[in-house]
Amino acid sequence: MIAARMRQMGVTGLPRNYEIFYAVETGTSEELSREFGQLGDRPSQRALDELSRKYFTSNNRDQIVQSAQEQVSESTTDILALMQREQNSIEKFCTILDKTSGGLEGPNALSRDVLQKVVGIMAAATHTTLEQGRTISRAMQEKTAELDEMKTKLARYKRLAETDPLTRVWNRRAFDRRMAEIYNDGREVMFNALILADIDGFKAFNDRHGHPVGDKVLQMVAHLISQKSGQCGFVARTGGEEFAIIVDGKSEDGVYELAEHARTAIAQAEFSIGPTAQQFGPLSISLGICMASEASDAEDLYAKADRALYASKSDGRNRTSRFSKITKGGFAKNWLLYKGE
């Protein structure tokens, strides 16, 4: 539907354009929807890019990284210049020491006045060198602090770029990265699993109650899933009403128990929204589980967990299914069953 609307409006199918249309379609931001509506029926790519830069920090990552690289390069250059100044100062001091030593070791005795002058020169050179060292040390500390601050900013930008703006859990980009990491390490494969969860009947719920209520429900569902997943769960929103949990360090029974805790918590939630605490429950989710060791790669793991999720939908929804337990080859996939419900 989103792709069809983009084509109808003459918009190129770029990921950043799709992100705008998806946010408008789901009502993620009223301000974004209002500004998008002001673009008319044939928005220009330039206008869409301005919206993308304004509302989606993740699309600014190239500019952010470039800016950070420039600042790091500038600080590094300054540090190298300070180190060169320190080296020059030390070399100059060593030259004074060598010449003074050579003069003291000469065959002729030095008068008291000459010795006093030598001592004065040495004292002044030492003082200058020490002061120069202290100045450079302070400057180095300042540059180090700047680099530490940049490191903190980059970490914050990265977290923001990988966070779903509505639910505040990880987004699809972060999920794809974490999934790839599983198969880069043999231990990860042995001790990881994927749970896919989908809110039952959410499209009809949105049509009935409106997107603002639907957004609140998504936020509450994300919170409950995160709460029940604890420290061992990497929770991401992978689609409109679909969430994923990458579980670390649990057996299949342990993963199933975690999924059931999340499912039960959502089934029992009242979903009270607004100043009147109007209740929009009950709601339910269906879940599918696959252990990483049952798949050959990240794509295969997702497909098998998705197949288990389909089994839960097919068996009546509001349940958890394991890929290891479903009948192999027994399902002819019908995406409309839950992707379009």
From TrEMBL:
Substrates-to-products reaction catalysed: 2 GTP = 3',3'-c-di-GMP + 2 diphosphate
EC number: 2.7.7.65
Molecular-function annotations in GO: diguanylate cyclase activity
Any Pfam family the entry gives: GGDEF
Gene Ontology cellular-component annotations: plasma membrane
First-level EC class: transferase
SUPFAM superfamilies: Nucleotide cyclase
InterPro entries reported in the protein's UniProt record: Diguanylate_Cyclase, GGDEF_dom, Nucleotide_cyclase, Rev_trsase/Diguanyl_cyclase
Superkingdom assignment: Bacteria
One biological process term in Gene Ontology: negative regulation of bacterial-type flagellum-dependent cell motility
Protein name, as recorded: diguanylate cyclase
NCBIfam families cross-referenced by the UniProt entry: GGDEF
Native species: Nitratireductor basaltis
GGDEF domain: residues covered: 190-325
PROSITE patterns cross-referenced by the UniProt entry: GGDEF (PS50887)
Lineage: Bacteria, Pseudomonadati, Pseudomonadota, Alphaproteobacteria, Hyphomicrobiales
